């Protein structure tokens, strides 16, 4: 995993220990069960990265199963005053629709780990490096006031960028490894935006499972 950041003119960097190709092989072999990392703290929340919540084998099985069963569709997003198509596929599970067993298992494990009762689940499917999602924060009016958003990564490692909304911006960069969870809690959505950029080299598919807390199911 690599985390890089900028705060004003100061820069800190956790060096990548190994080139990406070695890391991907090591991931598949189940190495790299690293410790949880707090990437940023806000007044009433934080951004945390938890690697290895699901093993490499579990992540691969979940990826294959969700790819096969999810009701994938295209998505549009409001960008300033226009609705634009997001270059990725999504799948939504709306209550009271039952969740597939695999997603119930994910919700239970992540919910127990974080002590959070998640009541909204959606999936994002980045078919290759051309798929991405632009800078945004999650401010769906159905979310609880200070929501918990947990993103489980499956499949290819993709980079996530996070930045503060106010200037001078603080920016973080985090490689989202399969089986890891990126958690944004509390007032993070008020103060930070996030983004999955396109990748200009051959990149295989990634699925993220987004768990959120909504006002009422
Ligand atoms: O795929 C991801 O991990 C990011 C998803 C995301 O930013 C979103 O759906 O709001």
Walk me through the structure.
The protein is 19% helix and 42% strand. It is an alpha+beta fold and 217 residues long. The protein has one domain: Jelly Rolls, CATH 2.60.120.590. The strands form two sheets. It has an eight-stranded antiparallel β-sheet with strand order 3-4-12-9-14-7-6-5. It has a six-stranded antiparallel β-sheet with strand order 2-1-11-10-13-8. The protein is globular and about 45 Å long. The structure holds 2-oxoglutaric acid. 2-oxoglutaric acid (AKG) binds at residues 124, 133, 138, 151, 194, 196, 208, 210.
Report the C-alpha radius of gyration, rounded.
17 Å
Distinct ligands, ions and cofactors found in the model: 2-oxoglutaric acid
CATH T-level topology: Jelly Rolls
- Beta-strand percentage? 35-45%
Q: What is the general shape?
A: globular
What is the SS-derived class?
alpha+beta
Q: How many domains make up the 3D coordinates?
A: 1
Strand-helix topology:
Blueprint: E1 3-7, E2 10-14, H1 20-28, E3 37-42, E4 45-50, H2 56-69, E5 73-79, E6 82-93, H3 101-114, E7 120-126, E8 133-136, E9 149-155, E10 158-164, E11 170-176, E12 181-186, H4 188-191, E13 192-196, E14 206-212
Antiparallel strand pairs: 1-2, 1-11, 3-4, 4-12, 5-6, 6-7, 7-14, 8-13, 9-12, 9-14, 10-11, 10-13
This protein binds 2-oxoglutaric acid.
2-oxoglutaric acid (AKG) binds next to strand 13 and strand 14.
Keyword list:
alpha+beta, eight-stranded antiparallel β-sheet, 19% helix, six-stranded antiparallel β-sheet, Jelly Rolls, binds 2-oxoglutaric acid
């Amino acid at each position: 995993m690599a985390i890089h950041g900028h705060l004003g003119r100061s820069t800190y960097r956790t060096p990548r220990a190994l080139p990406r190709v070695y890391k991907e092989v090591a991931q598949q072999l189940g190495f790299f069960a690293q410790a949880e990392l707090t990437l940023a703290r806000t007044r009433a929340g934080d951004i945390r990265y938890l690697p290895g919540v699901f093993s490499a084998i579990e992540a691969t099985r979940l990826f294959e199963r969700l790819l096969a069963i999810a009701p994938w569709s295209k998505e549009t997003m409001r960008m300033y005053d226009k609705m634009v198509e997001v270059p990725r596929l999504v799948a939504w599970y709306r209550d009271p629709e039952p969740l597939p067993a695999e997603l119930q298992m994910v919700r239970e494990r992540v919910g127990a780990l974080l002590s959070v009762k998640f009541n909204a689940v959606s999936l994002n499917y980045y078919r290759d490096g051309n798929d991405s999602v632009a800078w945004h924060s999650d401010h769906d009016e159905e979310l609880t006031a200070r929501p918990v958003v947990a993103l489980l990564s499956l499949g290819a490692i993709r980079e996530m960028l996070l930045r503060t909304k106010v200037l001078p911006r603080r920016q973080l960069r985090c490689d989202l490894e399969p089986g890891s969870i990126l958690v944004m809690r509390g007032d993070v959505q008020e103060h930070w935006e996030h983004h999955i950029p396109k990748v200009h080299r051959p990149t295989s598919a990634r699925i993220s499972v987004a768990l959120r807390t909504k006002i009422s199911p």
